[in-house]
Amino acid sequence: MSGRRVGARALPLLVYGVAAVVFTWPLALHPSALLGAPSGPGDPYLYVWVLGWDFHTWLSRPLDIFTGRVFDANIFHPAAATLTYSDHLLPQSLALLPIFAITRDVALCYNLLLLGSLVASALAMHVFVSRVFATTTGAYVAGMAWGFGSFHFAQLLHIQLQALYFLPLTFLYLHRLLNRGDAHARDVRGEPRHHTAQTLPGPRDQARPRGPDKVRAAHLSGGERKPALRVAAVLGVLVALQALSSVYYAVIGGLALVTAGAVLVAFDARATWRGTVGWLLCAAAIAAVLVLPVGLVYLRAQDAEGFGRNLYEASHGAAFLDSYVQAPEGNVLYGRSGLLRWPVSRRTNDVSHAGVERELFPGIAVTLLALTGVVVGWRSRWRGFVCAMVALGLLGFVLSLGPEGIRPLYAAFYRHVFGFQAVRAPARFAVLVLFALTTLAAIACRVIADRRGDVGRVRAAIVIAAVTLECLHLPVTLAAAPARHTDVGQWLAHAPGQGAVAVLPVTIDIDATPAMVQSLEYFRPLVNGYSGQRPAFYTKLTDTLSTFPSDEALLALHDVGVQYVVSPRAIDRQDAGESWPLVERARFPDATIYEVVWSPAADARFSRLTTVVPPAPGPVPFAPGELATYSVTWDGAGVNVPAGVITLGVEPPEYRLVATATTAPWVARFFEARDRFVTTATAELLPLTHERDQQEGRRHVTRAFIFDTAAHRVRSGRSLDAARAADAILLPLPEHARDALSALFYVRTLALARGQVVRFPVDEAGRNVVVELTAAGVETIDVNGTPTPAMRLEPQIRQRVERRQPATGTVWISTDQRHVPLKIAVEAAFGRVTLQLTSYQAPTS
To answer: What is the pTM of this model?
Structure first.
């Protein structure tokens, strides 16, 4: 290979490398001290931890990669498969493994991943355009727009979304597969020999294969099973890598290939459907085989925890029309100047129109070039590609608007496309719009810029400069990289034992991420966690631990196997004597480390732990066969609308309490639910077991709880058998506590007089509250058009720590001996929900 050809091939790498350094300046000057993100705690620290966990596994336990144990990461202890709660970054970490093995600097590797992703994305698009459309100017235009467009810098918080380098390569090999030799003859450059009068002009169009190239072209046009198989195999590997790089790009890339592939095949009259579809299915099978081991782990975690997003949740992460004219804050031309940057939507004054998911401006130059590409491309042999890109762009645009775009289309994808229910931010489908625009712009560049002579060079320079200027980005701020070594982390790395660590305060938000990064120093199980999802028990556990150092919090730490507690302040409880289970082990300026030591004295103390002693239940006024049906209405905008149906019943044997909930059809457009809750209880209406079967859209959650009143524990699992297992989640259970369903039926046994106040504990799988119930007196309410006397009850939820304004409610029960709930009204931030009795079936006995 001549020096000129080597230089020509190295030039794009040099150009995009310089662009990556400039567009993220001054990151290249301080790659270990800064982090390529506008803030640290949150998603950037989450993926620093993900990279660190991956590196640790590759170097210390490489077999875990192949057995799937790598996904049993150390956060959210004692949950399993917690790496599946977000993207795993295993392919990216493998590529960076040699650098980490030398430097042991995970922040440096994070920054190299960012810079490498920008360069690789631009190079991938450059190669795709130059190989398929044979345009140098178009390759640079598309490379800059795709590798350094607004989407990259709006998503600096999300390193996993920088993996845009596989999509152009999958389209390159899709093109090669559709234009293989046994479909129709090609010249050595992969272009059809059957040029027509509509063929785009260009300096490369006149080239004819000669000598060895002529022999090679003849070979490609003959019986080509082996080359086609090779191309299909490469396509399958690329699709698999794309899916493994990001869950979002698994869905987005799959839809893109299916959509564009169908259009390209439909426009190619020379291709045979049988042969083309066969090779595409072969590529899909290869991709499926490679992705299946990881996909099964994610699928099992989704089934176990009921992960997924309903349509209502997806609508909050959708784009708006004005999102496509908003640029990131660091964009020099439009963001820093404020031309296309505003924190509040000018159209609606709604702050929800702002945010990183909605900074999708593709650039004026790229858009104008794309429109030109549609016009000139329609008259050329690239008509099929033009139609494919138009279809792809429209699909991406509509899906980016989420459920509020074309709802039937989005709902159809949600119901029938695997993985779609995991989409939290539909705005990310905008990458398909950007891909379509850059491809069409490249087609335009072949006509208006790829010309010989000075005029052609000037045109090319102007077009490339215009696109580059619109992409030019300078970060407003870069976060400081997390410390590689801390006093707490180093002490825990050498501390005895293998027990779990809890870093206080334990929260459900981004505050957990510094503790996650610190855990890379010791790799012990960590109670703290932050991710795209969280285990079912975690919110309730954080509520309990928020009361630390209460007896209830200490009991929870013991039950989940915590050995060390890291507290931001010292705790003086010398008055507790030998019954105090925390022993100070180390003290630093910013933290104190305690070991949880459960002595016989501590065990005796906590076994006597009681909270509230409620009155004993009265005569049971219900029996098997009873069934009450309620209509549910919602008042969130000044009008009452039907929201669904709820039933409360008793099934045989005695004290099997059942509640079901089904949403109304209009609500199902946002949040579809078909839930069933079953509690079995003792004669005193203390719960024995509680089972939940929640079908909410594509999300199906089953959970079971076993109440051990003697040991004051709640055992949790996916099923009753799992809850009985030795590795079940254990949470504290106050004495005399009931779950919500048994508590409702318990209230019906009480003979309440006006002004009487009753207090009783309620436990919802480890989240313990005290309900204070006041009998306000008898009043007349309307029940199915009939004035009916009812006792008005006003429950209040009392918690040690109020995280937010609690919901308030009122319950009206009948004044006869059965005390049937006639009406229930709940007021919360989302509005007022009212349950009204519509039918009542008396017990059969």
So the answer is: 0.78
